[in-house]
Amino acid sequence: MEKPIPANSVCTHVGIIMDGNGRWAAKRGLVRTQGHLEGLKTAKRIVKAASVLGIKYLTLYAFSTENWKRAAEEVSFIMTLVKQYLRSEFEFSKKNKFRVRHTGDMAGLPPDIQKELTDSIAGTAGFDGMQVILAINYGGRDEIARSAQRFLEKQNQCSGSPNFHISEKDIHANLDNPDIPDPDLIIRTAGEYRTSNFLLWQSAYSELYISDKMWPDWEKEDLEAALAAFQKRDRRYGGVPSDKPWINT
Ligand code: FPP
């Protein structure tokens, strides 16, 4: 009989830092935008693979608050791809009951992207299948600052005595999507060992998996390998293993 998977090895939420599009293109003598175009195809492939593998939440880091520093043409190309993704995947999401969500500063996005995003979010809001969270104009520090700002605004609206104390619970409750569980696993492609402002608050106890492959080269098998590696991790959340209480964490 197969050994049952321990409750804390179940991978409910996967976050992906899709890196290496530019390098993938450079290696082939192509322009960077070509790498992003391939990256978009990979994103579609991996969304499908994740749903088959039973992932409940998949967060894709598509555009960071720092990515505005890139050349205007590259930024505008990525925004066009985001729009394309939202349009082309809308029917597919509906068919598969995927729920599309967003994290990041919506107000800082171009109006046409805001509209596509809000349409996709509203059009899939009632679905109970996998949730695909698009991190667009997203920064972890920015999200925490916006959470604190929301908290302050609510306090200002209080007719009674405002609360001048802010707790972890308050920060959590005012994040972009407080109902979404923290990521169990964060994957970064293209071999960099950093999290680049991705889900800073939520990743406190996420397992990290770094793949040397460039994002455009990622296949279903790579996601399977990441999940297999995750299942071998011993998640202690700062505690000690119950069977080996003498081991320090
Ligand atoms: C990182 O590679 C990739 C990005 C900043 C853009 C990712 C965007 C997409 C794949 C398209 C939109 C996707 C969705 C799901 C809406 P890089 O350019 O930093 O690569 P490099 O480090 O090799 O230069």
Number of strands: 6
The amount of beta strand, in percent, is 5-15%
Note the gap between the termini.
31 Å
What is the count of helical runs? 7
Strand/helix succession: EHHEHEHEHHEEH
Write the layout of secondary structure elements.
Elements: E1 13-17, H1 21-27, H2 32-52, E2 57-64, H3 72-95, E3 99-103, H4 111-124, E4 131-138, H5 140-157, H6 168-173, E5 185-188, E6 207-210, H7 220-231
Parallel strand pairs: 1-2, 1-5, 2-4, 3-4, 5-6
Helix pairs in contact: 1-2, 2-3, 3-4
Bound molecules: farnesyl diphosphate (FPP).
Commentary on this structure:
This protein has 249 residues and is α/β, with parallel strands linked by helices. It is built from seven helices and six strands. It has helices at residues 21-27, 32-52, 72-95, 111-124, 140-157, 168-173, 220-231; strands spanning 13-17, 57-64, 99-103, 131-138, 185-188, 207-210. The chain is globular. The model has no long low-confidence stretch (mean pLDDT 93). It binds farnesyl diphosphate.
Label this structure with key terms.
249 residues; binds farnesyl diphosphate; 41% helix; single chain; six-stranded parallel β-sheet; alpha/beta; 14% strand
Quick recap of the structure?
Helix content is 41%, strand content 14%.
